[in-house]
Amino acid sequence: MPVISCSHRSTPKDLGALAPLWTLAFEFGRAPFGSGFIAYPAIPWFGILCLGYGLGSVFVQEPGRRNRVLLQIALGAIALFLVLRALNQYGDPAPWQAFPIVAATAMSFCNVSKYPPSLLFVLITLGVSLLCLLALQRLRGLPARVLLAYGRTPLFTYVLHIYVVHGSALLVAVLAGYPASYEANVIGDPFRLVKTGWGFNLLLVYAAWLAILVVLYPAARWFADVKRRRREWWLRYL
Length: 238
Prior knowledge:
Layout: H1 19-26, E1 29-30, E2 37-38, H2 42-54, H3 56-59, H4 63-87, H5 102-110, H6 119-136, H7 142-151, H8 154-175, H9 191-196, H10 202-229
Antiparallel strand pairs: 1-2
Helix pairs in contact: 4-6, 7-10, 8-10
């Protein structure tokens, strides 16, 4: 399961010469080689991958039983998230805070760590995702075909979206007059852009998100057709 907070949280420097291995396994941070960074440490995401494989036996059950089991898992995950987050002692390295504005307190409560994924991040994201799956499985027609194109090509679409998103961000930044170097390693070192006040309001962010999905759809649909026609074992992992 993902690494979670405790009274003494180990860090790479605690291991001396073995620090690079700790970063590769558990931490978001600079890569032990080259000038890159580790965004997805191996152990937490491997645990989530194993959870997905474990759920495979549920999806082959008859629809009624499958839906009941998935609903129980989803509600259980969300309930456990709410209890642990309310206690504010366990499950995420960043405790939530109370603010005079209720909306700010709610945002702090829901603001859990993805890099690396904490236990609370996994509980709320997978719990809500399973509820969405149950709600959307009745879709038919064009909406169903569009979502299935993405769902049948998860890794392919994910990797492709990284290049499309960051390529688009680089283009917009250059057109706005910022040096292209400001977009280099922007996740690992975002402060150059932050200091300039770079950014857009939430409405434009959602519009950009939707535009990226539209751009990705033809490629996702094409690769879904490739996977349907061909039976090489490795294609199922893409």
